[in-house]
Amino acid sequence: MPRLIPAPASLGFRLDDYTSALAWSADGRYLAAGSLGGTTVVLAVEPDGDVIRAEPVAELPEHPLGVLALDWSSAGPRLASGGPDGRVRVWQPERGSTEVVAGSGWVQDVAWSPDGDLLAAAVGRDLVLVDGATVQRFGPHPSTVTALAWSTNGRSVGIGCYGGVWWYQPGAEAVHRTFEWKGSILTFATAPNGKWLASGNQDNSVHVWRLWSGDDLEMNGYESKVEHLAWDPASRWLCVGGIGDITCWDFSGRGPQGTRPKSLDGHTRRITALVFGGTTLASGSADGTVRVWKVPTRDPLAVTDLGEEVAQAAWRPGGGVLAVGGADGGIHLVRSPR
Fold this sequence. Notes:
mainly beta, 8-stranded mixed β-sheet, 31 strands, about 55% strand, disordered N terminus
């Protein structure tokens, strides 16, 4: 039987609206939380024995129509944020906030390169790369860019929209590689071993490309559009959030083609968050619960009831602590079972 972990208390405050983004700094010292009301709060977090202490240290300039994306650089505490106002901002503790992109399209995603030096932003139908004061722009693409993914070596960055995937190399003048696919991509997940790119799609499917041959396969028949994907650190399992269940595809050996996925059941409503912390998978749901799993074991290690719909989840680097954002703006920190 799974262990029931009591719901943690809110961290002394609630965001002004639905929690739309959560992100940890690479050293685990800071947690950033953004809302659809436009607020971004930075918390200083310090686990102290069985107690987790968190204190708000900054509130960033507002994105008036909401915060859609947050990401920390691995090369020091620099936080990028974006929203429907077309602005991309970078905040640093010692310098405050700087606007690095002012565009006319929604900023759906932001992602720092693996070395933390170069920032990619999906701005309307364009990919924008920012290196200090230098901006490189690629586009326009056939539709709004909805997802970004860096290759694991940092040499290429891919964008997804209707029509497939476009890969670019920073400093080059033209597209590096294109994976054509007639569908609308909602989310990306690159395998940690650099061999696979998976997309969750509007047409209730998951599409997977082998990097860099372009060979592809598709898993379809999901009950709803696919918005949540997660690879385990070994790149063996690709987990997909659905309506109440999680399907886990095995990419070992010859891969998943012609096989059936493992299923993790227990949530009673749609999956709203899906993240690996080391080998531990956490799932959040509109049913208000967070479940912690060891894939592919069908029974969860633990279940936490937050009392509000789960909107976002993010593991603290190094594991052990899961940040959870609620639909009512509550921010919670949950310890992983030992």
